[in-house]
Amino acid sequence: MLRIGMLTSGGDCQALNAAMRGVVKGICSKRDDVEIYGFKDGYKGLIYADFSMLTSKDFSGILTRGGTILGTSRQPFKLMRVPDKDGLDKVEAMKHTYHKLNLNCLVILGGNGTHKTANMLREEGLNVITLPKTIDNDLWGTEMTFGFQSAVDIATDTIDRIHTTATSHSRVFIIEVMGHKVGHVTLHAGIAGGADIILIPEIPYDIKSIAKVIEGRSKAGKPFTILAVAEGAISKEDAKLKKKEYKEKLEKRKYPSIAYELAEQIEKETDKEVRITVPGHTQRGGSPCAYDRVFATRVGAKAAELILKEQYGYMVAMKNGETTKVPLADVAGKLKTVDPKCSIIKEARMIGISFGDE
Ligand code: F6P
């Protein structure tokens, strides 16, 4: 008997269901003696032994469905070793559930935080295979994560729609894009949507150079400007602060997010009217795009292959367009950021996109 535990953890995204479907189809096409334990709401289900027994039928018809049929939750890694309110040791509880159910392995779908816990469970002796899930595309060791391309499509659609109204009113528009501490989604959506200025955390901006671009465009007969701004974008000034100082500054910020702070500064520096659009969680919602459906199916099938070969302790990754495996120990705790010197940035600059830094 092959007993597989499965859970989805962290923020949801498109193609989680498609990836699980890939794993289950891959395994069930080769073996009949399979038991699937679906843990509810991420690691919470593993801690409190909250699970359902699933069959391959439960994974049929979910290729296109957004969200996750298992539910998810955020269980911060730093709190994993802290007992819960009833004094329960969460790590021991997860191990207990795993051993009590006599599982052969755990399939864990998640992003950065999830991978730290997955690696800890591996170190504790559990068999773990992970799949790279996040719209942020910030997982080290893989060139792609599922959810990313769908989020880029949605943010691009927002920028497209804003373009027409920005042009009609000769306004400056800020579209604030998700991405946590990195700028992959903003960079791609910004280029795809024809943004004039792209601000990402990896390239700190200067408000004066943003104002210069906006005024330069007005003088050239383009009285509107579109800014694609990553939620984690940072000014040159703030980038000089120590991590702790910047965190404190953010806590005291009078605005809900960077877009509002920027809007006020741009209105001060120019004579333009500024508007803000925040697509927010729509970027994680709805059906996965075709790319994500294919990608999630491929990494799911690769996970099935590894499980059937009893090769554990890996994240399934994509390298040069091929699926592969990367040791979990190498992935955990590392962030894949945008390299400011990479060719996509150079190409964007080449066609006149400003990163607000010159
Ligand atoms: O990691 C995915 C992500 O959507 C980030 O881009 C964003 O910063 C964060 O999750 C939002 O988290 P929550 O869903 O908890 O508000």
UniProtKB/TrEMBL annotation:
The active site is at residue 136. ATP binds at residues 11, 74-75, 111-114. Its main location: cytoplasm. Residues 3-307 form the Phosphofructokinase domain. Its cofactor is Mg(2+). Keywords: ATP-binding, Cytoplasm, Glycolysis, Kinase, Magnesium, Metal-binding, Nucleotide-binding, Transferase. It is an enzyme of class 2 (transferase). The record marks 113 as: Important for substrate specificity. It is found in: Cytoplasm. Substrate binds at residues 134-136, 171, 178-180, 231, 275, 281-284. It holds the Pfam family PFK. InterPro entries: ATP_PFK, ATP_PFK_prok-type, Phosphofructokinase_CS, Phosphofructokinase_dom, Phosphofructokinase_III, PKF_sf. Mg(2+) binds at residue 112. Pathway: Carbohydrate degradation; glycolysis; D-glyceraldehyde 3-phosphate and glycerone phosphate from D-glucose: step 3/4. Its EC number is 2.7.1.11. It catalyses: beta-D-fructose 6-phosphate + ATP = beta-D-fructose 1,6-bisphosphate + ADP + H(+). Belongs to the phosphofructokinase type A (PFKA) family. Mixed-substrate PFK group III subfamily. Homodimer or homotetramer. Catalyzes the phosphorylation of D-fructose 6-phosphate to fructose 1,6-bisphosphate by ATP, the first committing step of glycolysis. This is ATP-dependent 6-phosphofructokinase. The lineage of its organism: Bacteria, Bacillati, Bacillota, Clostridia, Eubacteriales.
